[in-house]
Specification:
alpha+beta; about 25% strand; flat; 6-stranded mixed sheet; 7-stranded mixed sheet
Length: about 650
């Protein structure tokens, strides 16, 4: 028997020998890589109790459970030996006009969510060792908090553009130890750095690279367009040279597919692949463009060994012929830059925190509807209810977006910005907006300002938000910016998920209640502030731009904070009196502009442009010119145009000569 902490890297299911098998790969603090095989859990879905049907040739078991649909219909569970049997049965039953429930849930996701496992777990059971693996079969598992040490390989390749030849592969390995390695085609040379190894041809290079890669056994592969270029190229080259591209654990091959939007997805057994540009965009980074040189210069202050002014393609071809050591240095530098970018931004740490907080695998962090299922379904089941299949939701109109005040163009003095902190999650928490509370809305009802009704007693999401807010507060106290950001991303996804046709809990009342209440709060805040003698010159979804009164600019931080406190008291009292709820809203003073510009709309006239402004922002004892939504922040404007706009606005706002 062995007990070990495990952080899950990948999970998959397959049918074999009449069983559905779940296979998980993970890493441990003391036992290396583990493989966990689960073959004693039967796939299942649910059907109405009063239904009769025939499933010829499909082995199954029907069981009565104390579970109901959202329509209060009693349900039975149908258990199957394999997932393929489940799918066949669901098709037969649905084609006869009988509705199925939760027949579309992935077996791996169901296994983990029902055990409340968010990637980290404690595993106890009998085990065996095979090569580098510790293998468990049907162990006892339980959720824990465990952040692992990850072995990361940054990969970059260099190729011939005309010949489509593979010139070299560079790997920068980090984690428990640092290893630098370049595999390059060419005759051996003297006085070569120890990290360079020459091979007589592409086939020899690839074979040795794959052997070495299996030996160093990384957990995560990173790179720059690493899926759609590097790994895809290597896969095709291996196919051409009849070499198995066994880059996964246990000698497995990857599965690469191109999505409809043109991006690439890869599944590698036991390893996670994270592409730099994709990860940066998902973490809300913005650059002039996402070329490696641009991002590296912006974040690190250094770049490639070939200047951006040189003809990179011709220089690579020249180096391969005349200076292979320089080519190897260039290749390795690119791999090292990617490692440094991931370190500087904490991208991998962010990915791990997002996985731990959402329960999603690291290669599927963008699937926010799956994250909602992961949290919500187990709680729903324990409350005695089963959800619909996604395809069976009844679609309706989308909810209105966040409210934006009509801006009045002009130059303003002394503007403070007030922010509704986590507005939509706070609305959900205050008014108990939740799929179950909507269904149970007649029990101890709460009415929202938008006129929608929810139960004050039957809900899960408001409590989960309370837990997340507490965690985020703790993360900020500990200066854990990655956990704080991961929580923010998850919380802010709830509104969008419940308004999405891809969510099994979709109902138009859910997003409409949230945005409608948000509009009510923004408009009500402007009216209240007007009664206090303040002019709100602009507002956008969760922010208010308020002009200070004469004389308050002597201490804008003090007076901005007082306005926020006054608004918090106002809404706390009003919501308690009118809606009988305890306000979870928190309005905070965010920043102060000494000078602020709202621009005219492109159509001209007296109408202001929404989501476009500039101002002299106070940062400590300095003033910084800040642009939002304007040409200065657009990537399609030239450097000269941006510099001109910045200089022009700077002179106008500082009241300097500009003509």
């Amino acid at each position: 028997m062995l007990t070990s902490k495990v952080f899950i890297l990948t999970g998959e299911w397959f049918d074999s020998n009449g069983k559905n098998i779940i296979r998980l790969y993970g890493i441990t603090p003391a036992h290396g890589t583990v493989k966990i095989i689960i073959d004693n859990v039967n796939p299942l879905f649910f059907i109405p109790r009063n239904t009769v049907f025939n499933l010829p040739g499909i082995s199954h078991k029907r069981k009565q459970l104390e579970l109901k649909s959202f329509d209060e219909e009693q349900l039975d569970a149908l258990y199957f030996s394999t997932q393929s049997d489940l799918k066949r049965a669901a098709n037969i039953i649905e084609s006869s006009g009988i509705k199925t429930f939760e027949a579309d849930i992935d077996p791996v996701k169901r296994y983990l969510m029902e055990r409340f496992i968010n990637l980290s777990m404690e595993v106890t059971g009998k085990y065996q060792r095979e090569d580098r693996l510790v293998i468990f079969r049907n162990p006892k598992v339980s959720p824990i908090d465990f952040s692992p040490t990850i072995k990361t390989a940054s990969i970059d390749i260099e190729t011939g553009t005309k010949s489509d030849s593979l010139y070299s592969i560079a790997v920068h390995l980090t984690g428990e130890e640092e290893i630098k390695k370049v595999f390059i085609v060419g005759k051996p040379e003297t006085d070569v750095p120890g990290y360079i190894t020459f091979y007589k041809n592409e086939k020899d290079l690839l074979r040795n690279f794959l052997i070495w890669f299996e030996e160093v056994d990384p957990d995560v592969i990173i790179g720059w367009h690493v899926i759609g270029f590097d790994l895809l190229f290597l896969e095709k080259k291996c196919l051409t040279l009849t070499i198995p591209f066994n880059i996964g654990r246990e000698g497995s091959k990857p599965a690469i597919r191109k999505r409809q939007n043109g991006s690439y997805y890869i599944f590698i057994q036991g390893r996670v692949v994270i592409d730099g540009p994709v990860a940066l965009r998902a973490s809300f980074y913005s650059f002039e463009n996402f070329k490696l040189e641009t991002v590296a210069q912006s974040l690190l202050g250094e770049g490639k060994t070939i200047s951006s002014n040189e003809n990179k393609v011709e220089e690579i071809e020249r180096m391969f012929v005349d200076d292979k050591i320089k080519l190897a240095e260039y290749n390795l530098k690119d791999a090292e830059l990617v490692t440094a970018i991931f370190e500087k931004t904490g991208l991998l740490k962010m990915y791990i925190k997002r996985g731990e907080i959402s329960g999603l695998m690291l290669d599927n962090l963008g699937m926010m509807t799956a994250a909602f299922d992961h949290f919500y379904l187990p709680h729903l089941h324990r409350a005695g209810y089963i959800a619909s299949n996604v395809k069976d939701i009844k679609t309706a109109g989308h909810a209105a977006g966040g409210y934006v005040f009509e801006p009045v163009p002009g130059i303003y003095n002394d503007v403070v910005v007030l922010d509704f902190k986590s507005l939509y999650p706070s609305i959900i928490k205050t008014f108990k907006i939740d799929p179950l509370s909507r269904m149970k809305k007649e029990i101890d009802p709460i009415k929202t300002p938008s006129g929608h009704q929810f139960s004050s007693k039957h809900h899960f999401l408001p409590g989960f938000i309370t837990h997340l807010l507490d965690l985020r507060s703790e993360a900020k106290t500990k200066n854990d910016k990655y956990l704080s950001q991961a929580i923010k991303i998850l919380m802010n996804s709830f509104y969008g998920v419940m308004g999405s046709y891809g969510c099994r809990f979709y109902h138009p009342d859910l997003p409409s209640a949230i945005t409608g209440t948000g509009q009510f709060l923004l408009i009500g805040s402007r009216k209240f502030l007007s009664e206090q003698g303040y002019q709100t010159i602009y507002g956008d979804t969760d922010s208010l731009f308020v002009k200070l009164k004469d004389g308050e600019n002597i201490n804008p931080d003090l007076f901005g904070g007082k306005i926020a406190e006054t608004l918090n008291r106002y809404w706390g009292n009003r919501l308690a009196e009118e809606y009988k709820v305890e306000s979870s809203l928190e309005i905070e003073y965010e920043k102060y502009y000494r000078k602020f510009v709202l621009t005219s709309a492109r159509s001209g006239g007296e109408t202001g442009a929404k989501k476009r402004y500039a101002g002299l922002l106070k940062v400590g004892s300095k003033e910084v010119l800040e642009f939002v939504g304007m040409e200065f922040v657009r990537s399609d404007w030239t450097k000269l145009a941006k510099e001109f706009q910045e200089e022009l606005y700077s002179r106008i706002l500082k009241e300097e000569e500009y003509i």
